[in-house]
Amino acid sequence: MFKIGEIRELIRLLDETSVQELKIETDTMKVFMKKADHLASAAESAARSLQSSPVQASNPLQPAAATPFSGASLAESQESKSVEQVASVPEGHLITSPMVGTFYRSPSPEAPAYVEVGSKVDSKTVVCIVEAMKLMNEIEAEVKGEILEIMVENGQLVEYGQPLFRVRLS
Question: How far is 87 from 25, CA to CA, in rounded Å?
Fold first, then answer.
């Protein structure tokens, strides 16, 4: 039986490599992980936007002209979008959620937050808690620097890999 930490490590390793799928089977358990197909997601998104666009035909008996759609134009569109996104990313290191769960800024409702904007952190500084399956997981900064931005609200549900804090490295 895998422990939560081991599963998290498998997810992180899968995310950091070019491996697209991982399948592990034992007598008592099966684990299957697959990366999301970004090109397929983009194609689905483009198809939805084409379907939602109003089509006006001058002659109701004659079908409207088909909109040309090619994989190359989609790839070019995605490439230019990626370049724009990279250009607009603010500086700083992101501390991301290692799991799906509920984000808490402090150890209890009455206690002060672990960190605020401007707080100095080092690699072992606890910055928040992510509750998953009734377990309170302390999240450490893992870097040395200053908190620039807190990117989620207290009590908010967070996804695996979702940015929680932006840190200026020192």
Answer: 42
